C-alpha cells in the first residue's frame, strides 16, 4: 500500500459557525464574489445572515446568483466575468454542491485567459490543470457532495451534453465553513439524494480499490453505517439538528480523500455513468446514483464476491455460508437498494421517465475520461460499452 495524502482546506464545523463568515473571508480578501444558487438561500434567510457577517467584517460584495443544479459552463463564464469586472479577490460559495463547484471553477477561470471549458476534462488533448485561483471559502447548505473540502468540481455543457469534472490541487477551498443549521431547510427528497451520494462516494473506493485495506474498509463502513442511521433520521425529521450534523460530517469525510487514501480506487464508475445520464436529462446527481449504484454492484459482485459479502455482513448483518457466497453478496445489495427506496430514492431509470433510447450514448460518454487503453470505463472490473448498457437495462 503506497500513497500520498494531502488536504489543505481548513475546516470549521458546527451549528452557528455561519457568524464567523466575515472574519474568515476578510482573512482571504477585501472584495468577495458571493456565488449562490436558484434562491433557496434567500428564501431561508441564510443570504441575509451571510452578507451581514461579511459586511460587518468590512468585506465588500459582488454577486453571482442563479447557479443551476448541475451547473453549466456558461454560468462559470458569467461568474468569472463578474469577478473580473468587479475586481474580486476572494470567492465565497453559499449553497449546495452545484454552487460550490461553480464557485471553484469560477475562481480558476478568473485567472485563466482561455475558454473555461478547457479546465473540465472531456477527452480533449490539452486538459488544463490551473495552478492559480482566487481563494475560495465554501459554505455548504446541503450535505451531499463534500465539495466544500475537496479539489473536485463537476460542470455540465449544454451544447455538447457532457458533464465532467475538474480536479487539481489549486481547487481545494482555503476554508470550509460548515454550519449544519443551514441544511435544516433542505427538502426531504434532496436530503435523501444527498445520503445516497455520501454512501456512493465511499462505496466507489470500497469496491474499486485494491485488496487488503482493512483500515480504509472500516472507515468506509463507518461512513455508510452513519449515513444509514442518521440519514434515515434526517429524512424523517428535517428539523433534527443532531441528524443533520451527523449527516453533514459524514458527507465531508466521505469525499475529502481520507477514507480512500491508499485504497487507490481503479476508477469511479458509478459516478461516471451517472454524470453521463445527468448530462442528457438534468436529473439530480444523488437520484441518478441510487439507480446506477445497486445495478453496478450486481454486475461487479460476480467478479469480486468476497468484498460484497463483507459489505452484506458488516453493513446489513447478513450471514454468509462462505467468504465467496454470491447469494449473500446479492442479498446485501438488495438490502442497500431497499434502504434507498425506503428513504424515497428512485432505483429505476423508468421512475424518472428515462427510456432506453440513449443507452449507447451514456455508455460512450461515461468512458470519456477515466478509461483504460482499450477504451473501457475504469473500475474493478473495467466496463465495456456493452457492460454499461446491460447494467443500465
Ligand atoms: O439552487 P438553490 O435554490 O440553492 O436550491 C438547491 C437546489 O435546487 C437546493 N438547496 C440547496 N441548499 C438548500 C436547498 N434547498 C433548501 N434549503 C437549503 N439549505 O437543493 C437543490 C440541489 O442543489 P445542488 O447544489 O445541485 O445539490 P448537491 O449538493 O447534491 O450538488 C450536486 C452537484 O454536485 C456534483 C453533482 O454532479 C451535481 O452537479 N458533484 C460534485 C462533487 C464534488 N465537487 O466533489 C462530487 C459529487 O459526486 C457530485 O458529482
Ligand atoms: Zn457523488
Biggest β-sheet, characterized?
A: 6 strands, parallel
Order of helical and strand elements: EHEHHEHEHEEEEHHHHHHHHH
**Any low-confidence stretches, pLDDT <50, length ≥5?**
none
Please estimate the helix content: 40-55%
Sheet-strand content, in percent, reads 5-15%
Structural class: alpha/beta
Query: Helix segment count?
Result: 14
Note the overall shape: globular
Which small molecules are bound? 5,6-dihydroxy-NADP, zinc ion
- Rg, nearest Å: 20 Å
Strand order of the largest sheet: 1-8-5-4-2-3
Give the termini distance in whole angstroms.
36 Å
Q: Let me know the number of strands.
A: 8
Mean pLDDT: 98
Task: Describe, in plain words, how this protein is organized in 3D.
This protein is 46% helix and 11% strand. With 393 residues, it is of the alpha/beta class. The strands form two sheets. The protein has a six-stranded parallel β-sheet, sandwiched between helices. A two-stranded antiparallel sheet has the order 6-7. The longest helix has 23 residues, at 214-236.
Topology:
Layout: E1 10-13, H1 21-26, E2 31-36, H2 40-43, H3 46-56, E3 60-64, H4 73-85, E4 90-95, H5 97-109, E5 136-140, E6 152-157, E7 162-167, E8 175-178, H6 188-208, H7 214-236, H8 241-254, H9 269-281, H10 285-301, H11 305-316, H12 326-342, H13 359-366, H14 385-392
Parallel strand pairs: 1-8, 2-3, 2-4, 4-5, 5-8
Antiparallel strand pairs: 6-7
Helix pairs in contact: 4-5, 6-7, 6-8, 6-10, 7-8, 9-10, 9-13, 10-12, 10-14, 11-12, 13-14
Amino acid at each position: 500500500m503506497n500513497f500520498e495524502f494531502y488536504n489543505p482546506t481548513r475546516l470549521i464545523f458546527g451549528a452557528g459557525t455561519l457568524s464567523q463568515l466575515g472574519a474568515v473571508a476578510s482573512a482571504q480578501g477585501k472584495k468577495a464574489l458571493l456565488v449562490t444558487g436558484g434562491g433557496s438561500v434567500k428564501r431561508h434567510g441564510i443570504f441575509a445572515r451571510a452578507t451581514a457577517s461579511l459586511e460587518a467584517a468590512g468585506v465588500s460584495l459582488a454577486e453571482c446568483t442563479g447557479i443551476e443544479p448541475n451547473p453549466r459552463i456558461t454560468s462559470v463564464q458569467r461568474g468569472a466575468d463578474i469577478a473580473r469586472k468587479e475586481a474580486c479577490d476572494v470567492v465565497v460559495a453559499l449553497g449546495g454542491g452545484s454552487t460550490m463547484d461553480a464557485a471553484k471553477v469560477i475562481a480558476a477561470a478568473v485567472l485563466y485567459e482561455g475558454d473555461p471549458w478547457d479546465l473540465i476534462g472531456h477527452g480533449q488533448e490539452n486538459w488544463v490543470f490551473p495552478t492559480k485561483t482566487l481563494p475560495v471559502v465554501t459554505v455548504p447548505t446541503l450535505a451531499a457532495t463534500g465539495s466544500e473540502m475537496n479539489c473536485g468540481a463537476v460542470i455540465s455543457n449544454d451544447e455538447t451534453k457532457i458533464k465532467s469534472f475538474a480536479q487539481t490541487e489549486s481547487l481545494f477551498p482555503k476554508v470550509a465553513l460548515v454550519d449544519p443549521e443551514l441544511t435544516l431547510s433542505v427538502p426531504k427528497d434532496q436530503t435523501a439524494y444527498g445520503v445516497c451520494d455520501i454512501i456512493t462516494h465511499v462505496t466507489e473506493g470500497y469496491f474499486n480499490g485494491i485488496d487488503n485495506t482493512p483500515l480504509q474498509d472500516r472507515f468506509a463502513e463507518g461512513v455508510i453505517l452513519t449515513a444509514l442511521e442518521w440519514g434515515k433520521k434526517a429524512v424523517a425529521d428535517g428539523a433534527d439538528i443532531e441528524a443533520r450534523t451527523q449527516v453533514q460530517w459524514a458527507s465531508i469525510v466521505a469525499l475529502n480523500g481520507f477514507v480512500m487514501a491508499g485504497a487507490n480506487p481503479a476508477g469511479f464508475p458509478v459516478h461516471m455513468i451517472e454524470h453521463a445520464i445527468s448530462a442528457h436529462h438534468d436529473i439530480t446527481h444523488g437520484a441518478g446514483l441510487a439507480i446506477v449504484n445497486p445495478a453496478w454492484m450486481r454486475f461487479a459482485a460476480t467478479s469480486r464476491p468476497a468484498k460484497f459479502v463483507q459489505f452484506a455482513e458488516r453493513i446489513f448483518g447478513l450471514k454468509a455460508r462462505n467468504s465467496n457466497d454470491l447469494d449473500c453478496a446479492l442479498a446485501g445489495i438488495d438490502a442497500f437498494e431497499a434502504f434507498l427506496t425506503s428513504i424515497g430514492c428512485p432505483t429505476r431509470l423508468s421512475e424518472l421517465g428515462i427510456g432506453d433510447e440513449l443507452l449507447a450514448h451514456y455508455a460512450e460518454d461515461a468512458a470519456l475520461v477515466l478509461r483504460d487503453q482499450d477504451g473501457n470505463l475504469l473500475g474493478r472490473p473495467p466496463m465495456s460499452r456493452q457492460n454499461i448498457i446491460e447494467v443500465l437495462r
